[in-house]
Amino acid sequence: MASTRTLFKALTRRGPHKVLRGDLAFAGVTGVVYTPDSGFNLPAVAFGHDWLTGTDKYRGTLEHLASWGIVAAAPDTEKGLIPSHLNLAADLATTLEIVTRVRLGDGKISVHPTKLALAGHGLGASAAVFAATRTPALVDKKNRPVGAKAVVTLFPSATQPPVENSAAGLTVPGLVVTSTEDAQSLRSNAVALAHAWPGAELRCIAKAKSGGLPEHSWVRRFVGLGGSNRATQRNTRALLTGYLLFQLTGDKRYRDFADTAAELPNTSLPAAAELEISDLDRMQSLLR
Protein backbone atom coordinates (compact mmCIF):
# COMPACT_ATOMS: atom_id res chain seq x y z
CA MET A 1 0.00 0.00 0.00
CA ALA A 2 1.28 3.47 -0.88
CA SER A 3 2.51 5.61 2.00
CA THR A 4 0.53 8.63 3.13
CA ARG A 5 3.34 10.89 1.94
CA THR A 6 3.15 9.35 -1.53
CA LEU A 7 -0.63 9.67 -1.58
CA PHE A 8 -0.46 13.31 -0.48
CA LYS A 9 2.03 14.11 -3.21
CA ALA A 10 -0.18 12.42 -5.79
CA LEU A 11 -3.20 14.40 -4.59
CA THR A 12 -1.40 17.70 -5.17
CA ARG A 13 -1.74 16.87 -8.88
CA ARG A 14 -4.87 16.38 -10.95
CA GLY A 15 -6.43 12.92 -10.83
CA PRO A 16 -7.03 10.36 -13.58
CA HIS A 17 -10.53 11.47 -14.64
CA LYS A 18 -11.43 13.80 -17.47
CA VAL A 19 -13.58 16.66 -16.20
CA LEU A 20 -16.90 18.02 -17.46
CA ARG A 21 -18.41 21.39 -16.56
CA GLY A 22 -22.12 22.08 -16.16
CA ASP A 23 -24.46 24.87 -15.12
CA LEU A 24 -26.70 24.68 -12.04
CA ALA A 25 -29.02 27.34 -13.44
CA PHE A 26 -31.11 24.68 -15.20
CA ALA A 27 -32.26 23.62 -11.72
CA GLY A 28 -32.89 27.12 -10.41
CA VAL A 29 -29.60 27.97 -8.67
CA THR A 30 -26.92 30.18 -10.21
CA GLY A 31 -23.70 28.22 -10.09
CA VAL A 32 -21.49 25.55 -11.61
CA VAL A 33 -20.91 21.84 -11.30
CA TYR A 34 -17.78 19.89 -12.27
CA THR A 35 -17.92 16.13 -12.67
CA PRO A 36 -15.81 13.21 -13.85
CA ASP A 37 -16.73 12.34 -17.44
CA SER A 38 -18.71 9.29 -16.28
CA GLY A 39 -19.67 7.25 -13.23
CA PHE A 40 -22.71 6.24 -11.21
CA ASN A 41 -23.23 6.62 -7.45
CA LEU A 42 -20.35 9.08 -7.17
CA PRO A 43 -19.50 11.13 -4.07
CA ALA A 44 -20.31 14.84 -4.22
CA VAL A 45 -19.50 18.05 -2.40
CA ALA A 46 -21.23 21.43 -2.40
CA PHE A 47 -18.65 24.21 -2.10
CA GLY A 48 -19.19 27.71 -0.71
CA HIS A 49 -17.15 30.73 -1.87
CA ASP A 50 -15.56 33.45 0.24
CA TRP A 51 -16.59 37.10 0.52
CA LEU A 52 -16.46 39.06 -2.77
CA THR A 53 -15.31 35.93 -4.59
CA GLY A 54 -17.22 34.15 -7.33
CA THR A 55 -17.08 30.47 -8.14
CA ASP A 56 -14.91 31.21 -11.18
CA LYS A 57 -12.04 31.88 -8.75
CA TYR A 58 -12.26 28.28 -7.49
CA ARG A 59 -12.29 26.62 -10.89
CA GLY A 60 -8.95 24.89 -10.31
CA THR A 61 -10.07 23.51 -6.94
CA LEU A 62 -13.42 22.29 -8.24
CA GLU A 63 -11.83 20.70 -11.32
CA HIS A 64 -9.23 19.07 -9.07
CA LEU A 65 -11.93 17.37 -6.99
CA ALA A 66 -13.75 16.19 -10.11
CA SER A 67 -10.53 14.79 -11.56
CA TRP A 68 -10.33 12.53 -8.49
CA GLY A 69 -13.88 11.25 -8.96
CA ILE A 70 -15.80 13.70 -6.75
CA VAL A 71 -18.69 15.74 -8.17
CA ALA A 72 -18.07 19.35 -7.09
CA ALA A 73 -20.89 21.89 -7.28
CA ALA A 74 -20.81 25.53 -6.18
CA PRO A 75 -23.62 28.09 -5.97
CA ASP A 76 -22.56 31.48 -7.32
CA THR A 77 -24.80 33.54 -5.04
CA GLU A 78 -24.36 36.03 -2.16
CA LYS A 79 -21.40 37.80 -3.78
CA GLY A 80 -22.25 41.34 -2.68
CA LEU A 81 -20.66 43.57 -0.06
CA ILE A 82 -23.08 42.41 2.63
CA PRO A 83 -23.75 38.72 1.95
CA SER A 84 -25.94 36.48 4.07
CA HIS A 85 -24.24 33.41 5.51
CA LEU A 86 -27.65 31.84 6.05
CA ASN A 87 -28.80 32.45 2.49
CA LEU A 88 -25.57 30.95 1.14
CA ALA A 89 -26.07 28.00 3.48
CA ALA A 90 -29.56 27.48 2.06
CA ASP A 91 -28.13 27.55 -1.47
CA LEU A 92 -25.48 24.99 -0.51
CA ALA A 93 -28.16 22.68 0.88
CA THR A 94 -30.22 23.12 -2.30
CA THR A 95 -27.14 22.41 -4.41
CA LEU A 96 -26.65 19.05 -2.68
CA GLU A 97 -30.29 18.24 -3.34
CA ILE A 98 -29.93 19.14 -7.03
CA VAL A 99 -26.88 16.97 -7.72
CA THR A 100 -28.50 14.08 -5.88
CA ARG A 101 -31.83 14.24 -7.68
CA VAL A 102 -30.65 14.96 -11.24
CA ARG A 103 -28.67 12.79 -13.64
CA LEU A 104 -25.65 14.82 -14.73
CA GLY A 105 -23.74 14.99 -17.99
CA ASP A 106 -25.44 12.95 -20.71
CA GLY A 107 -27.19 10.80 -18.14
CA LYS A 108 -24.00 8.83 -17.48
CA ILE A 109 -23.25 10.49 -14.13
CA SER A 110 -25.14 10.17 -10.85
CA VAL A 111 -24.48 10.95 -7.19
CA HIS A 112 -25.14 8.58 -4.31
CA PRO A 113 -27.35 10.13 -1.58
CA THR A 114 -25.17 8.83 1.24
CA LYS A 115 -21.88 10.12 -0.19
CA LEU A 116 -22.39 13.85 0.29
CA ALA A 117 -20.23 16.54 1.85
CA LEU A 118 -20.20 20.29 2.35
CA ALA A 119 -17.13 22.47 2.09
CA GLY A 120 -16.20 26.10 1.69
CA HIS A 121 -13.61 28.83 2.01
CA GLY A 122 -13.76 31.80 4.37
CA LEU A 123 -17.36 32.98 4.46
CA GLY A 124 -18.38 29.89 2.51
CA ALA A 125 -16.70 27.63 5.07
CA SER A 126 -18.92 28.94 7.85
CA ALA A 127 -21.93 28.77 5.52
CA ALA A 128 -21.14 25.09 4.97
CA VAL A 129 -21.47 24.48 8.71
CA PHE A 130 -24.82 26.26 8.77
CA ALA A 131 -25.90 24.17 5.76
CA ALA A 132 -24.97 20.94 7.54
CA THR A 133 -27.73 21.60 10.07
CA ARG A 134 -30.27 21.91 7.23
CA THR A 135 -29.51 19.04 4.85
CA PRO A 136 -30.94 16.11 6.91
CA ALA A 137 -34.40 17.49 6.16
CA LEU A 138 -33.95 16.76 2.43
CA VAL A 139 -34.92 13.50 0.75
CA ASP A 140 -34.03 11.97 -2.61
CA LYS A 141 -36.32 10.44 -5.25
CA LYS A 142 -36.68 7.28 -3.17
CA ASN A 143 -37.55 9.30 -0.05
CA ARG A 144 -34.20 8.56 1.59
CA PRO A 145 -32.68 11.29 3.81
CA VAL A 146 -30.10 13.42 2.03
CA GLY A 147 -27.53 14.86 4.38
CA ALA A 148 -23.86 15.73 4.53
CA LYS A 149 -21.63 12.91 5.72
CA ALA A 150 -18.73 15.30 6.40
CA VAL A 151 -17.97 19.03 6.36
CA VAL A 152 -14.68 20.74 5.49
CA THR A 153 -14.02 24.37 6.42
CA LEU A 154 -11.04 25.99 4.70
CA PHE A 155 -9.75 29.05 6.54
CA PRO A 156 -13.22 29.83 7.97
CA SER A 157 -14.22 33.37 8.93
CA ALA A 158 -16.38 34.65 11.77
CA THR A 159 -20.10 35.08 11.21
CA GLN A 160 -23.16 36.77 12.61
CA PRO A 161 -24.95 34.85 14.08
CA PRO A 162 -21.95 32.87 15.43
CA VAL A 163 -21.50 29.65 13.48
CA GLU A 164 -20.00 28.00 16.56
CA ASN A 165 -23.49 27.70 18.06
CA SER A 166 -24.58 25.57 15.10
CA ALA A 167 -21.33 23.57 15.07
CA ALA A 168 -21.87 22.51 18.68
CA GLY A 169 -24.90 20.48 17.61
CA LEU A 170 -23.31 18.73 14.64
CA THR A 171 -22.80 14.98 14.76
CA VAL A 172 -20.98 14.67 11.42
CA PRO A 173 -17.17 14.69 11.32
CA GLY A 174 -15.42 17.83 10.20
CA LEU A 175 -12.06 19.16 9.10
CA VAL A 176 -11.10 22.73 10.02
CA VAL A 177 -8.15 23.95 7.95
CA THR A 178 -6.18 27.02 8.95
CA SER A 179 -2.66 28.42 9.01
CA THR A 180 -0.53 29.58 11.93
CA GLU A 181 -0.95 33.16 10.75
CA ASP A 182 -4.69 32.90 10.17
CA ALA A 183 -5.43 31.20 13.49
CA GLN A 184 -4.43 34.42 15.27
CA SER A 185 -6.43 36.70 12.95
CA LEU A 186 -9.52 38.57 14.13
CA ARG A 187 -11.27 37.51 10.91
CA SER A 188 -10.64 33.81 11.50
CA ASN A 189 -12.78 31.66 13.78
CA ALA A 190 -10.93 28.40 13.08
CA VAL A 191 -9.81 27.71 16.65
CA ALA A 192 -13.16 28.62 18.20
CA LEU A 193 -14.98 26.54 15.58
CA ALA A 194 -12.81 23.49 16.24
CA HIS A 195 -13.45 23.90 19.98
CA ALA A 196 -17.21 24.08 19.55
CA TRP A 197 -17.55 21.25 17.02
CA PRO A 198 -17.50 17.73 18.52
CA GLY A 199 -15.30 15.45 16.46
CA ALA A 200 -13.76 18.20 14.34
CA GLU A 201 -10.12 17.90 13.29
CA LEU A 202 -8.03 21.10 13.23
CA ARG A 203 -5.03 21.18 10.90
CA CYS A 204 -2.60 23.94 10.01
CA ILE A 205 -1.12 24.06 6.52
CA ALA A 206 2.51 25.13 6.56
CA LYS A 207 3.20 28.62 5.19
CA ALA A 208 -0.36 28.85 3.83
CA LYS A 209 -2.08 32.13 3.05
CA SER A 210 -5.75 32.11 4.00
CA GLY A 211 -6.55 34.33 1.03
CA GLY A 212 -4.43 32.32 -1.39
CA LEU A 213 -6.94 29.61 -2.32
CA PRO A 214 -8.96 31.62 -4.90
CA GLU A 215 -7.35 32.13 -8.29
CA HIS A 216 -6.37 35.50 -9.77
CA SER A 217 -8.75 37.93 -8.07
CA TRP A 218 -7.80 41.62 -8.22
CA VAL A 219 -10.87 42.46 -6.11
CA ARG A 220 -9.56 40.37 -3.22
CA ARG A 221 -6.16 42.04 -3.42
CA PHE A 222 -7.81 45.47 -3.56
CA VAL A 223 -9.76 44.89 -0.31
CA GLY A 224 -6.78 43.32 1.46
CA LEU A 225 -7.81 39.65 1.31
CA GLY A 226 -4.62 38.61 -0.47
CA GLY A 227 -3.82 37.16 -3.86
CA SER A 228 -3.54 33.71 -5.38
CA ASN A 229 -0.93 31.43 -3.78
CA ARG A 230 0.01 28.21 -5.55
CA ALA A 231 1.52 26.46 -2.53
CA THR A 232 -1.66 27.13 -0.54
CA GLN A 233 -3.80 25.83 -3.40
CA ARG A 234 -1.67 22.72 -3.92
CA ASN A 235 -1.57 21.62 -0.28
CA THR A 236 -5.16 22.59 0.50
CA ARG A 237 -6.48 20.67 -2.49
CA ALA A 238 -4.53 17.56 -1.49
CA LEU A 239 -5.78 17.69 2.10
CA LEU A 240 -9.38 18.36 1.04
CA THR A 241 -9.40 15.62 -1.59
CA GLY A 242 -7.84 12.95 0.63
CA TYR A 243 -10.22 13.74 3.48
CA LEU A 244 -13.29 13.53 1.24
CA LEU A 245 -12.14 10.33 -0.45
CA PHE A 246 -11.92 8.62 2.92
CA GLN A 247 -15.08 10.07 4.48
CA LEU A 248 -17.31 9.65 1.43
CA THR A 249 -16.01 6.47 -0.19
CA GLY A 250 -14.40 4.68 2.77
CA ASP A 251 -11.17 4.19 0.81
CA LYS A 252 -8.80 3.05 3.58
CA ARG A 253 -5.74 4.29 1.72
CA TYR A 254 -6.74 7.79 2.80
CA ARG A 255 -7.49 6.93 6.42
CA ASP A 256 -4.71 9.19 7.76
CA PHE A 257 -6.34 12.26 6.20
CA ALA A 258 -9.13 11.91 8.77
CA ASP A 259 -6.98 10.71 11.67
CA THR A 260 -6.50 13.42 14.29
CA ALA A 261 -3.20 11.86 15.35
CA ALA A 262 -1.69 11.21 11.91
CA GLU A 263 1.10 13.31 10.47
CA LEU A 264 0.57 14.60 6.94
CA PRO A 265 3.09 16.35 4.66
CA ASN A 266 3.12 20.15 4.79
CA THR A 267 0.57 20.21 7.62
CA SER A 268 0.66 20.15 11.39
CA LEU A 269 -1.66 19.30 14.23
CA PRO A 270 -1.73 22.24 16.68
CA ALA A 271 -0.27 21.51 20.09
CA ALA A 272 -2.69 21.34 23.01
CA ALA A 273 -1.61 24.78 24.19
CA GLU A 274 -2.48 26.26 20.80
CA LEU A 275 -6.01 24.86 21.06
CA GLU A 276 -6.82 27.07 24.03
CA ILE A 277 -9.13 29.89 23.02
CA SER A 278 -6.91 32.95 22.83
CA ASP A 279 -7.59 36.49 23.92
CA LEU A 280 -8.28 37.31 20.28
CA ASP A 281 -11.03 34.69 20.19
CA ARG A 282 -12.57 36.05 23.37
CA MET A 283 -12.45 39.58 21.94
CA GLN A 284 -14.03 38.28 18.77
CA SER A 285 -16.90 36.72 20.68
CA LEU A 286 -17.54 39.98 22.51
CA LEU A 287 -17.78 41.84 19.21
CA ARG A 288 -20.51 39.54 17.85
| Number of H- or I-type helical stretches | 10
CATH-defined topology: Rossmann fold
Instruction: State the major sheet.
Output: 9 strands, mixed
Order of helices and strands: HEEEHEHEHEEEHEHHEHHEH
Radius of gyration: 17 Å
> What global shape is seen?
globular
Alpha-beta classification: alpha/beta
CATH superfamily: Alpha/Beta hydrolase fold, catalytic domain
Give the number of domains.
1
Unreliable stretches (pLDDT < 50, length at least 5) are: 275-288
The N- and C-terminal alpha carbons lie at a distance of 48 Å
> Beta-sheet strand percentage?
15-25%
> What's the pLDDT, averaged over the residues?
86
CATH architectural group: 3-Layer(aba) Sandwich
What spatial order of strands do you see in the largest sheet? Answer: 1-2-4-3-5-8-9-10-11
What's the total number of strands?
Answer: 11
Helicity level, as a percent range? 25-40%
Any idea of the CATH class?
A: Alpha Beta
Overview of the structural elements:
- By secondary structure, the protein is α/β, with parallel strands linked by helices.
- The chain is 33% helix and 21% strand.
- It is built from ten helices and eleven strands.
- The protein has helices at 4-11, 59-67, 85-101, 123-132, 163-167, 180-183, 190-196, 218-222, 230-249, 279-287; strands at residues 19-23, 31-36, 39-48, 71-75, 109-121, 138-139, 145-146, 150-154, 174-178, 200-205, 267-268.
